[in-house]
Design brief:
Length: 224
């Protein structure tokens, strides 16, 4: 803050749009700083130094033991082929160890359907809606790394929708969403459908030929 105004252009990049004065309090001599979206790397000592024409003085404030719970997913929509498996990504970054996370829930937000629940270090498959029974699972070997991604097996067209991974740890909670769309058919499915069509068309053509030959031999057209 200099010459009566805040100088945001001299901020370090990491603090752009995150560090603010309480502008309505400056007239009362309050130069407290509000730091938004606190991160683990924000831990440390912060010095507030005030200069006047006659003197200068400073105070130091320490930020320590930052509690964080960050949940991230894919940066864009996820697509899959009908009949194949798909992974819905969910990664947890926290000062809390994965084994101390109380609950992770996956659900379909567009229809409010429970997909899979992880609670007190256990996966609870009975919590899944019947349309997901025996079709969803965590990567159990990855949970210790904060990976709570979901494997959805044998994708169906009705699986298309918005899925939320929500994490609870003490008073903290965070979530991320995954959009599953573009449920198409694989080249294998298309090939099978093509041959089924060809086989069906061939069968109809053969049947027509047999009917024609039979009718000709029995004199349907007026001659024997």
């Amino acid at each position: 803050y200099q010459d009566g105004e805040s100088r945001a252009e001299v901020q370090q990049q990491d603090y752009h749009d995150r560090a603010h004065f309480f502008t309505d309090q400056i007239q009362h001599g309050n130069f407290s700083l509000r730091l938004d979206n606190l991160r683990a790397e924000d831990e440390g000592n912060y010095t507030c130094k005030v200069y006047s024409q006659q003197d200068s003085n400073e105070t130091v404030v320490q930020i320590k033991d930052v509690e964080r719970l960050l949940v991230s997913g894919p940066s864009r929509s996820t697509s899959a082929y009908v009949g194949e498996d798909v992974t819905l990504n969910c990664s947890v970054d926290s000062h809390i160890k994965p084994e101390h996370i109380e609950e992770v829930s996956w659900k379909r937000t567009d229809e409010d359907i429970p997909v899979l629940l992880y609670q007190n270090n256990e996966t609870l498959p009975d919590s899944s809606d019947e349309q997901y029974t025996d079709r969803v699972e965590f990567f159990t070997d990855e949970i210790s790394k904060g990976n709570f991604s979901l494997r959805l097996k044998s994708v169906r067209t009705e699986d298309k929708g918005v899925y939320m991974c929500e994490v609870f740890a003490g008073v903290l909670s965070a979530n991320t969403t995954v959009v599953l769309e573009q449920l198409g058919f694989s080249s294998w499915h298309i090939t099978v459908l093509f041959f089924c069509f060809v086989a069906g068309f061939g069968a109809v053509l053969l049947l027509c030929c047999l009917i024609y030959c039979r009718s000709k031999n029995t004199g349907v057209f007026g001659r024997k």
